[in-house]
Write a structure and sequence with these properties.
Blueprint lengths: L2 E6 L2 E2 L6 H19 L3 E9 L3 H10 L3 H18 L6 E4 L3 H13 L4 E11 L4 E3 L18 E10 L5 H9 L4 E3 L1 H12 L5 E2 L1 E3 L9 E2 L2 E6 L1 H6 L1 H4 L8 H8 L4 E6 L3 H15 L6 E5 L2 E3 L2 E2 L10 H8 L1 H11 L6 E2 L2 H30 L11 H19 L3 H22 L10 H21 L4 H12 L17
Parallel strand pairs: 1-3, 1-13, 2-3, 3-4, 8-14, 13-14, 15-17
Antiparallel strand pairs: 5-6, 5-7, 7-9, 10-12, 11-12, 15-16
Helix pairs in contact: 2-3, 4-10, 5-6, 6-10, 11-12, 12-13, 13-15, 13-16, 14-15, 14-16, 15-16, 16-17
The structure holds 5'-O-[(L-methionyl)-sulphamoyl]adenosine.
The site of 5'-O-[(L-methionyl)-sulphamoyl]adenosine has 21 residues, from strand 2, helix 1, helix 7 and strand 13.
Length: 488
């Protein structure tokens, strides 16, 4: 059995989630569900990054203890799971003991590459990272949040990243760590070629307000939140105790896939593999960097204050419609702008008029024809051919995260089915059943079954309902009515 370890980023819990966070989890969920449907083994992981400085600052501002503050927000991130039907196998919080022990174990395993030095630099709390002057944009602000970094000077621990420059270059160039898309791979290679500097991997406990994971044997320092957070991928699998799951899903698995936003690719493609190389642990196999959901062209972010609430959206339109929109509207590698108008228009065009209408149309005819007389083995070869061409393309595209292209294929298939019905005019066939009508109706039902199979990872709840409806067809008087039109 093929095994896949699939992870999302673990979110900062300095505020409730916005739909940008939901988008990433939905991408990953489609990928995980698709693998499971194909019969692969899957371990799908998500979680909450609770130890960051920005969480501390947000809690201070809210006048609540950090522990109370982060656990309330983590619950909201976890709620995305049930609302959007995310099929995580595990959800790790970085304050859990299994994580703390695992991070400290990893630190010790990297100790030969860790040293102390006094350092000063510009730190962006929103990104939780240092910036060099030439990395800042106009007026000296951070390129991601347009926030002014703070000047810091401290004695901290450093990790010898520079030592891994050649090895990382080789791994990435040869796709041993395969970065999608190619343009991001090139960006990472040019970052590495520009020369890797050693990185600061701790901060004083005082600056961290006492929050975070202690450096082993030096409680005056807390482990830098990225060293801490990246470790979640193995601490969740039981790295601390070298457990069975860690061995099976990490060390002895060549399909370890991280799905992250383009803003944090560098941490996953450079820092994280270097830490693992240093510790003698296997490196990830694939990293997929997705684009941002934007509002008027700007990244949606808590820091910028332009967020759309995922819960309100799901409550109003249903989770599957939201899932569908994110996956169909724009390529996963690009940024996509969200507006309610675009959402409603696409819903009506693709789902109500497209897929939903096709289901109603075929089911009405099949019921009249007599469900019991349908044998899928009789399906029209023309439909079978259409199915196999669509399936081949769909499989290739979903494997490469081209979800919107895969959905285009599925929609084109639905359009072809519609055309087929118009051409064959099943309603005008002679009343007596014969080979020709068997072929047509079997083909149409087979086509619907395939539509359900292809769309299941994208809209699991709706497709489960459609599947049950198809199974009980004939004994169920109710209309399916999958996607009622939205009145705009
Ligand atoms: N805590 C770190 C990740 C640590 S992973 C070891 C972090 N957290 S975050 O909350 O800022 O972002 C979490 C994920 O959500 C990232 O992959 C980020 O790119 C993604 N997104 C945040 N805003 C987004 C959009 N507006 N659109 C799409 N994804 C976005 O970074």
């Amino acid at each position: 059995m093929n095994k896949n370890f699939i992870s999302t980023a673990i979110d900062y819990v300095n505020a409730p989630p916005h739909i940008g966070h939901a988008l990433e989890k939905i991408f990953a969920d489609v990928f995980a569900r698709r693998k499971r449907l194909l019969g692969d083994g899957v371990f799908f992981l998500s979680g909450a990054d609770e130890n960051s400085l920005k969480n501390v600052r947000a809690a201070e501002k809210a006048g609540v203890s950090v522990a109370e503050f982060v656990s309330a927000n983590t619950e909201k991130f976890l709620a995305l799971k049930s609302v959007f039907n995310l099929s995580y196998d595990d959800f790790i919080k970085t304050t859990e003991e299994r994580h703390v022990l695992g991070v400290q174990k990893l630190w010790r395993a990297c100790e030969k590459d860790i040293f102390k030095k006094t350092y000063s630099g510009l730190y962006c709390v929103a990104c939780e990272t240092f910036y060099k002057e030439d990395e800042l944009v106009e007026n000296g602000v951070c390129p991601v949040h347009s926030a002014k970094p703070e000047f810091m000077e401290e004695e901290n621990y450093f990790f010898r990243l520079s030592k891994y420059q050649d090895k990382l270059k080789e791994l990435i160039e040869n796709d041993k760590i395969k970065i999608f898309p190619q343009s991001r791979k090139n960006e990472i290679l040019s970052f590495i070629n520009g020369g890797l500097e050693d990185i600061c991997v701790s901060r004083s406990s005082e600056r961290a307000s006492g929050w975070g994971i202690d450096v082993p044997d030096d409680p005056s320092q807390k482990i830098w939140v990225w060293f801490d957070a990246l470790s979640n991928y193995i601490t969740a699998l039981g790295f601390a105790g070298n457990g069975k799951e860690f061995q099976a899903w990490w060390e002895k698995n060549n399909n370890k896939i991280h799905i992250v936003g383009k803003d944090i690719l560098k941490f996953h493609a450079v820092y994280w593999p270097a830490m693992l190389l240093s510790a003698g642990v296997a490196v990830p196999d694939k990293i997929f960097a997705h684009g941002f959901l934007t509002v008027n062209g700007q990244k949606m972010s808590k820091t910028l204050g332009n967020v759309v609430d995922p819960f309100e959206l799901a409550e109003k339109y249903g989770a599957d419609a939201v899932r569908y929109f994110f996956l169909a509207e724009f390529p996963a590698i690009d940024d996509g702008d969200f507006t309610i108008e675009k959402f409603e228009n696409r819903y009506n065009a693709d789902l109500a008029n497209g897929i939903g209408n096709l289901f109603e149309r075929i089911l009405a005819m099949v019921l009249k024809y007599g469900v019991k007389d349908i044998d899928l083995d009789d399906a029209d070869p023309a439909i079978l051919d259409l199915i196999s061409r669509t399936e081949e393309s769909y499989l290739g595209k979903t494997e490469n995260f081209q979800f919107h292209e895969a959905l285009k294929d599925v929609l084109a298939f639905a359009g072809e089915m519609d055309k087929y019905i118009n051409d064959k005019k099943p309603w005008a066939l002679p009343k007596e059943k014969n080979k020709e009508s068997d072929k047509i109706f079997s083909g149409l039902m087979f086509g619907l079954e395939k539509l359900v199979f292809w769309l299941k990872p994208f809209m699991p709840a709706k497709m489960e309902r459609a599947e049950n409806h198809l199974k009980n067809l004939g004994s169920n008087e109710e209309k399916l009515n999958l996607f009622p039109r939205i009145n705009i």
